[in-house]
Amino acid sequence: MTVDHQQTDHDVIKHGHRHEGPYKHVVAFIFSIVLTLIAFAAVAAGGVNTTFTVIILLVMAVLQVLVQLGYWMHMKDKGHFIPILFLVGGFFVAFTCVVMALSWVWW
Amino acid sequence: MAHAHSVKHHKGLMDWLTTVDHKKIAILYLVAGGLFFGIGGIEAMLIRIQLWKPLNNFVSAQTFNELITMHGTTMIFLGVMPIIFALMNAVLPLQLGARDVAFPFLNALGFWTFFFGGLLLNLSWIMGGAPDAGWTAYTPLASKAFSPTHGVDFYTIGIQIAGLGTLIGGINFLATVITMRAPGMSFMRMPMFTWASFITSAIILFAFPAITVGLVLLSFDRLLGANFFEVAAGGNPILWQHIFWIFGHPEVYILILPAFGIISDVIPTFARKRLFGYSSMVFATILIAFLGFMVWAHHMFTIGMGPVANALFSISTMLIAVPTGIKIFNWLFTMWGGQIRFTTANLFASAFVPTFVMGGVTGVMLASAPADYQFHDTYFVVAHFHYVIVGGLVLGLFSGLFYWWPKMFGRLLNETLGKWTFWTFVIGFQLTFFIQHFLGLMGMQRRIFTYLPNQDFDTMNLVSTIGALLMAVGVIIFFVNIVITMSKPKGVANDPWEDGRTLEWTIPSPPPEYNFKQIPLVRGLDAYWKEKQAGNTEMTPSEPVGSIHMPSASILPFVMSVGLFIAGLGFMFSRDEFSNSFLAGIFNNYVVVIIGLLITFICMLLRSVFDDHGWHIEPEELEEEGVKA
Questions:
Q1: Which of B239, B299, B613 best probes binding to A when mutated, by most A CB atoms within 10 angstroms?
Q2: How far is it, in rounded angstroms, from Cα B260 to Cα B326?
Q3: Staple partner for B156: which of B54, B219, B258, B430, CB 3.0–4.6 Å?
Q4: Are B338 and B328 in contact (CB under 8 A)?
Q5: Of the candidates B148, B4, B164, B118, which has an alpha carbon nearest to the alpha carbon of residue B560?
Q6: Please, are residues B253 and B389 in contact by the beta-carbon 8 Å criterion?
Q7: What does the alpha-carbon distance between residue B264 and residue B274 come to, in Å, rounded to a whole number?
Q8: Which helix H or strand E contains A34, and what residues bound it?
Q9: In this structure, are residues B131 and B73 in contact, taking their beta carbons and an 8 Å threshold?
Q10: Is B615 in a helix, a strand, or coil?
Q11: Which compartment or compartments is the protein found in (chain B) (predicted)?
């Protein structure tokens, strides 16, 4: 197999992480917590308008997904073009299906 | 190291059941695919015999429905797709300069799940009736109320298990292309067949989940009394059509893109020219894959989606003609001015081009929504999709098989018999399907089991049947060719066509277990051709001769698939009434399902807890084999 080849790739990735340190991950972690707290707070506060709460929840959810994918799934790192491509592709197909089912079949 | 001596090497049947070698799995795919292709072909012959004259009673209406359903399903899922996978397995790692696919164990698992899924589906013939709702299994026809036998259950469960294998295979090829290219083999230096296989695998990854979900919903409706497609209970049968075609349309590109790839490799080899417009070819392939996901509703123009949706899907469908046209012209320009040799492989590839254009033209006609109201569910559609699937894919597969047969088996197929196959098959094909366009335009519906005399259908149907028999003759000559070839000793050169351009032609035919003694260094597109131009007889190695890490053979993929097969059968009959109390006990209490799933999960557990480090082939052994060769 291409053991040597893979080993070098692996080393490069490890190497890259070692320089980065935990700093960014701590920030990302705090950011994730804050996003969650905002979402909880929005619901706890009750508010006058349910639609407004739902919009806040959705915005927080999207940001949360981006943080999770970017930092914890390493999508912001180099060499992740292909995983991103396939994530976007999968999202595109899934989105098409859901929109189709909701808008076309049941409305 | 000690590994080399502790490895069990299986022989005979056990070797085939446990192999994880991509070259042997390719042969398994080819044999199984060929078997199902034969079954599907016999079904096609029976259909044509039934239709050769008006008011024929060769088969009953029910049997005819089963025949058309099983012909479509078998040919697409169990016939041509495995043969595509056979060629991908045999060629793709070699073209990349890799020693195997990324996940050899999964490769075996993919084959065995496909095989047992196909077996389950075909068992329906002897277990109470085959599926009879068409290969599209449209609800409500496919619902319990209108298909009360287990036919459609065989369809849902069989395709589900076989589809699992396809999905596994697709993911495996994606990982192989992304991670296992030889040094220097950038994406834009990959041979077109590898590119096409890569894109095809991506389509499989995105399209198969749709059919998986659809089949789960349909089997729940049928077996567990759910109501997803049941109007009376708030379900919607149109939903099935959408789900099916969200998968089904990309599926036809899963079928045709590998054929595009095959002939993009065959035509340059036998024209002694590089492929014209390589990068536009890659771009066109990607574009087809992308557009392929946005056209599914053109199968449903007549269900009443409204003019806006129909117009949009008309346009997106017609757009696909653009990248396809790019490809057609690229092939023509590749041949233009080349030193063309018409070997059987090249004959099939050359016949592919005009035949596929004809299928494409009727495709654009069908894409026009108003005209489609006239064509819909007539023999015009039947003619169209046979032009693209048989005239496109099957000609491409024949081309690929003749081209790579020496690499897979170490023997050249007989060219004279090959040319007989070509002429009988192609003439038979045109005879069968060209005339069906006109049958359709004159109003003959598809899927009818007989027709009245004196509607001008009689002669045309007779001609069509004669053509089909001629195609059968072509296929039989091909099988005879295989038998004759296999009875001769191996011993073709590395590069039997002498104009090989890609890496698979740099190694022995058939390749040794480890493919490349040293992984080659790739210095350009058409790596081998580039070395030949530079006056080299072989590739520059990218590594010293060293010990080669090999994956261990395993029986687990086979047993896991048997488990799924048992569970599938158990699930299908779980709500039946049995006169035998023992059978009732084990089926109605889901004991069979549990046993089947236990077998599969225990195998997964075994695979997870026992690390398998594989084994090594040492440099000394490589030398010994080198002497032998």
A1: B239
A2: 12
A3: B219
A4: no
A5: B164
A6: no
A7: 10
A8: helix A23-44
A9: yes
A10: strand
A11: Cell membrane; Membrane
Question: How would you label A42-66 residue by residue, b for 16+ Cβ within 10 Å and e otherwise?
Answer: beeeeeeeeeebeebeeebeebbee
CA count, 13 A, side-chain hemisphere, A90: 9
- For residue B541, the model assigns a pLDDT of 94
B324 φ, ψ to 5°? Answer: -65, -40
DSSP conformational letter for B521: P
- The residue of chain A with its CA nearest to that of B204 is A90
Query: Quick check: A104 and B242 CB within 8 A?
Result: yes
Look at strands B615-617 and B548-550 and give their pairing.
Answer: antiparallel
Handedness of CA B177, B182, B188, B194 (dihedral sign): negative
Residue B1 has pLDDT above 50, yes or no: no
CB B480 within 8 A of CB B417: yes
**Helix, strand or coil, per DSSP, at residue B336:** coil
Q: Does B312 touch chain A (CB under 8 A)?
A: no
Give dist(CA B88, CA B400) in Å, integer. Answer: 10
Task: List pLDDT tens digits, range B35-71.
Answer: 999 999 999 999 999 999 999 999 999 999 999 999 9
In chain A, where the domains are located: 3-76, 79-107
Distance in Å from the first CA to the final CA of chain B: 24
- Which residue positions in chain A have pLDDT lower than 50? 1-17
Sequence-distant (6+) residues with CB within 8 A of B573 are: B150, B587, B592
Extract the tokens encoding B571.
């699930």
Do the beta carbons of residue B249 and residue B299 sit within 8 Å?
yes
- The answer to whether residue B445 neighbours chain A at the CB level (below 8 Å) is no
A91 contact B CB<8A: no
- The answer to whether B478 and B416 have CB atoms below 8 angstroms apart is no
* C-alpha to C-alpha distance for B518 and B540, rounded to whole angstroms: 9
Residue spans of alpha helices (H) in B411-503: 415-441, 458-486
For B236-295, write each residue's pLDDT tens digit.
999 999 999 999 999 999 999 999 999 999 999 999 999 999 999 999 999 999 999 999
Higher pLDDT, B623 or B548: B548
Phi, psi of B548 (to 5 degrees): -110, 125
User: What single letter denotes the amino acid at residue B402?
Assistant: F
Give the nearest chain B residue to A102 (CA atoms): B239
Return the pLDDT at A92.
87
Helix B278-291 vs helix B192-223: crossing angle, to nearest 10:
10
